[in-house]
Design brief:
The structure holds two protein chains of two kinds. By secondary structure, chain A is of the alpha+beta class. In chain A, about 25% of the residues are buried. In chain B, helix 6 packs across helix 9 and helix 25 runs antiparallel to helix 26. In chain B, strands 1, 2, 3, 6, 7, 8, 9, 10, 11, 12 and 13 form an eleven-stranded mixed beta sheet that branches. Chain B has a six-stranded mixed β-barrel with strand order 16-17-22-19-21-20. By secondary structure, chain B is an alpha+beta fold. Classes of the chains: A alpha+beta, B alpha+beta.
Chain lengths: ~110, ~900
């Protein structure tokens, strides 16, 4: 995979992706990063470091909770979990996103 | 949240974040190892994918929302360290700012105390003064007695209204007789102002009746000086008569320290007794103060008073035709025309501060260029732009607040020192209230922060230009050109503002010099003046007695060997007081009420004009034969002659004077014009009456001595005591000093403007010097090469000078344009000088150009002495 095929994330999109990933259950930072890379077939380029300020931001906004747990490999890791507020926000963000994608699609590929 | 638990949580979060990031890197490395990468490459890749670790930590921390305070603390410590490392820069910056902020603080403390602070009375915004005013004039006149009584009886706007008249009080009895400034007031005066005595009581409501016994309230100052501050003075009797028949007056109260009615300082307050029987025949004498009823606006009060004035004009047209009433808020009345000059001075000093800021901004910019490498390095190590910006601003604020505090200390010490240096009668309202206090400190801190932001913003903007590539590899040299344009612009602005200030100062100086060249019309050399009120009760109608006393004093004084001439006048020229009246030609039909001719009236003794050195142009001056019983005579000045007899010889004509029994006087002489109200006011028409025929109770003796004036004072005093043993003297002053006091305020104004102009000039000069020095230093290598290649030192000198002069000329041009636009605000302060006076503009241009050359010279000469060998080896 060459760098050219990777796309840098739009400002603000990272938060949505993190919330989306946490929909499947609590996950630690590294796991969230892997999940975003994997589910986008490595197209979306997330600088790993940028996840952590984003996670702290979401935590400060009350959209996610954090808790230290032991992983399958017996290591301590901080797991993040969606809060109710986070779920609502995710729903709102998704519908906004869908409208935007549809609108952009109409502009780019008019029928 | 208590501090310790805050600190604890802060530490915990810090550890959590570190653990979390370590876990991430370990997991990523493991993942790559599982894929079969070498351990070394796995670790390296994991770090690479992660990005800037420090930056991530910083960013994550900032999301906790506590970082702000902490970062400010760090920045402050860092800024203090940086400044300590560069004490020269710090000292210059702080000192320049302290000068600017100190001067601004000092002027602001005056503006604050005089213009902004409420007067020290209860609910002062409800206090007004009510004046009479002619329809065709904007001069507020004192009030006629019957009009005051009518206003008091008819108005519904005021809770109360009081009349007052300043009148020196003669204190005899214990110790030498003295005369202190006094104020006669209606009984409700203290109540209207809402100030009670600290000792004893004020006046009872009926104590201004004609038959009430005499009571007096004194100032705190007089109580301390004359009565030693003893509490048992209450109930004591003092003798105010000065005559052979003592008329005792009971002391009933002492006012608090600092109490005085604006513009009427007094040591002794007596009840003003108005006789309703004689009131309609009085002249205009009284000032009034009133308190608005709750809910009554100024406009409503004005409306009512105008209506009342229409009524009094219809009832007594001879006195009141053409007159109305004018209600003026007490604060506005107090501040008067000082507002303009204070605002001009505040504006001037603010410009000085701006120049100081521009200077410091320039210093900061130069330092920023040499710190470019540091900045680039910090960006490379993960510092965010915002963080660097914040760091720069904190540094500027540290400098500006240090400068501000130092400036405040300068003002705290300087303002009282300057005030002490001013004469006690200096014509600045509320002068004793001026204080550098807490509200001034607040102002200082505010402008300090403002300054810090103003000059901090320029270097901070440069942060945005930091680029990783280049700056580190260039060895930190390349950045100098980047902010050169900005620096030059700042210097041009400095010069422009300096030009503006120096033009302002120049205009005021020229105006002041012209004013001082105005001929007073008198020759004041060796004249001593003795100001007093003849010590007799106000209701003394023994006029002959008064006239005799003055002529006895004059006879004795004239007999002294030290004395050349002596005379008396009611009000001294330039003392701020003058009487006036209507006077009309008797050979013309009597004019309709309110439409007659008139002007100043001076009551003077025989030999007055010779004593004062006023030329008699026609006829004669008063002589001893012009006494009571002899035909009433008058002398007029040229202005009055022009007004009354434009084509005829006035001698022998008769005038009907609305004064003291309405005599018809015969004109016996014409004298040259003199300035009475001040040098800036043209001479008014003036009618002189003979003291012996219309004696007054206010008298100033003018004594011209033969040689040493000072030694004659005691002898003159002694002769006066011989005639009237209990007569105190209000003030002994040389005529020269009386004239000088009348221009004391313009002198101080022009001095302050000159100081600000000089400060601006110096700062602008330093600015040019700094910028050119820096430019030379930056171009050392280039200059070295030029010299090595054979450039003549003279051509280098020219090159550097040209660079400096280009800045100076641009600044001067901009400054002259700004001056043309702004100096019109000075117009009301200038005497005969136009705000666009070309002489001032040309002079200022030359001064500024010379100052700029001086600023450039040192660095330019330094440039010619660059040693090519050394400079080239240095690289």
């Amino acid at each position: 995979m060459s760098d050219k095929e990777r796309i840098e994330l739009l400002q603000g999109t990272l938060d949505m992706l993190i919330l989306r990933t946490l929909q499947w259950g609590p996950q630690h930072g590294h796991g969230i990063g892997l999940a975003i890379r994997n589910s986008s077939d490595d197209v979306l380029q997330v600088e790993h470091g940028s996840l952590y300020p984003a996670l702290q931001r979401l935590r400060a906004q009350g959209l996610v909770d954090a808790e230290w747990k032991i992983t399958e490999n017996k290591q301590r890791a901080r797991y993040y979990r969606l809060t109710t507020k986070g779920k609502k926000m995710l729903a709102a963000e998704e519908s906004r996103w869908n409208r935007m994608v549809a609108a952009i699609a109409r502009v780019m590929r008019p029928v | 949240m208590p501090l310790w638990s805050w600190l604890f949580r802060r530490k915990q979060e810090e550890r959590d974040l570190e653990d979390e990031l370590r876990f991430h890197l370990e997991s990523e490395t493991q993942l790559r190892l599982d894929r079969g990468e070498t351990p070394e490459s796995a670790r390296q890749k994991a770090r690479q994918e992660f990005g800037n670790l420090t930056f991530v930590q910083e960013e994550a921390r900032s999301m906790w929302g506590w970082g702000f305070v902490e970062r400010i603390g760090q920045d402050l410590r860092f800024a203090a360290r940086t400044l300590r490392k560069n004490p020269g820069f710090a000292a210059v910056a702080v000192l320049v700012l302290a000068l600017g902020i100190g001067a601004t603080t000092a002027i602001f403390s005056v503006v604050d105390s005089v213009l902004l602070k409420p007067l020290r009375f209860a609910q002062p915004d409800k206090l007004v003064m009510v004046w009479e005013r002619r329809f065709d004039s904007n001069h507020n006149n004192v009030v006629q007695t019957q009009n005051y009584l009518d206003w008091r009886a008819r108005n519904r706007s005021f809770e109360a209204i009081a009349a007052m008249i300043g009148m020196p009080a003669n204190l005899a009895g214990s110790g030498d007789p003295i005369q202190v400034p006094g104020l006669r007031v209606s009984a409700r005066f203290f109540q209207i102002l809402g100030v009670s005595p600290i000792l004893g009581r004020g006046f009872r409501p009926d104590e201004d009746r004609l038959d009430a016994p005499c009571v007096a309230v004194m100032s705190h100052g007089l109580w301390q000086r004359r009565f030693g501050g003893h509490e048992d003075v209450i109930g004591q009797r003092i003798d105010l008569s000065g005559g052979p028949k003592p008329s005792p007056c009971e002391l009933v109260g002492v006012m608090p320290a600092g109490f005085s009615f604006p513009g009427l300082p007094a040591d002794l307050y007596l009840a003003l007794r108005i006789d309703p029987g004689t009131a309609p025949g009085d002249g205009r004498n009284y000032r009034t103060v009133a308190r608005l009823r709750p809910g009554v606006s100024l406009a409503q009060a004005q409306q009512e008073m105008s209506a009342i004035a229409i009524g009094t004009a219809q009832e007594r047209p001879r006195m009141n035709s053409g007159w109305s009433a004018q209600v003026v808020p007490l604060l506005e009345q107090t501040v008067g025309d000082t507002r303009t000059i204070l605002l001009v001075l505040l504006g001037a000093v603010a410009f000085v501060l701006l120049i100081a800021c521009a200077n410091v901004a320039n210093l900061m910019l130069m330092r920023a260029s040499s710190r470019r490498r540091e900045m680039t390095l910090r960006v490379a190590l993960g510092a965010g732009r915002r963080r660097l910006l914040q760091q720069m601003i904190v540094e500027s604020l540290l400098v500006s607040i240090a400068g501000g505090l130092l400036g405040f200390l300068m003002a705290l010490w300087g303002v009282p020192a300057i005030l002490r240096f001013l004469p006690s009668g200096f014509p600045l309202p509320r002068m004793q209230e001026i204080a550098v206090d807490r509200s001034v400190l607040g102002f200082t801190l505010l402008i300090s922060i403002g300054c810090g932001l103003v000059f901090g913003i320029f270097p901070a903007l440069q942060v945005n230009r930091v680029r990783m590539t280049g700056d580190l590899s260039q060895g930190g040299r390349g950045g100098s050109a980047a902010n050169r344009g900005l620096r030059n612009l700042l210097v041009i602005a400095e010069v422009a503002v300096a030009v503006l200030l120096v033009v302002g100062a120049g205009l005021m100086l020229r105006s002041f010099l012209l004013l001082n060249q105005v001929s007073t019309g008198i020759s004041p050399e060796r004249i001593i003046t003795f100001r007093m009120m003849l010590a007799t009760p106000l209701d003394d109608h023994f006029r002959e007695n008064r006239a005799a006393r003055i002529s006895q004093m004059l006879d004795r004084i004239r007999a002294l060997p030290q004395v050349a001439n002596a005379a008396a006048t009611q009000f001294l020229p330039f003392s701020g007081s003058q009487a006036g009246s209507d006077y009309n030609r008797t050979d013309r039909p009597a004019p309709a009420p309110g439409s007659g001719t008139g002007g100043d009236v001076s009551v003077v003794s025989d030999d007055y004009f010779r004593t004062m050195g006023i030329p008699v142009l026609a006829g004669r001056e008063f002589e001893s034969r012009d006494r009571r019983g002899a035909p009433p005579v008058a002398v007029i000045n040229q202005a009055a002659a022009r007004m009354l007899y434009p084509t005829e010889n006035p001698i022998g004509h008769r005038l009907k004077v609305f004064w003291d029994g309405d005599p018809a006087v015969e004109i016996v002489g014409v004298v040259a014009d003199t300035h009475h109200d001040g040098l800036e006011y043209p001479a008014q028409p003036c009618l002189f009456l003979a003291q012996a025929q219309s004696p007054t109770s206010f008298v100033s003796l003018v004594v011209r001595t033969r040689d040493d004036a000072a030694s004659a004072v005691a002898a003159v005093r002694q002769q006066m005591q011989q005639v009237a043993p209990n007569q105190g003297i209000e003030k002994v002053e040389s005529m020269e000093s009386v004239i000088a006091s009348s221009v004391a305020r313009p002198r101080l104004e022009v001095t302050l403007m000159a100081i600000f102009g000089a400060l601006a000039l110096t700062l602008a000069c330093v600015g040019i010097y700094a910028v050119i020095s820096y430019s030379v230093q930056q171009r050392t290598r280039e200059l070295g090469i030029r010299l090595a290649l054979g450039a003549a030192p003279a051509s280098i000198l020219r090159m550097i000078l040209r660079e400096g002069m280009l800045l100076a000329v641009s600044g001067i041009a901009a400054g002259l344009l700004a001056s043309l636009a702004l100096t019109r605000y000075l117009a009301t302060l200038l005497y005969t000088v136009k705000p666009s006076d070309p002489a001032v503009y040309v002079t200022v241009t030359l001064i500024l150009a010379m100052a700029a050359i001086a600023g450039c010279c040192a660095p330019a000469f330094r440039a010619t002495r660059v040693d090519p060998a050394i400079t080239l080896r240095e690289e």
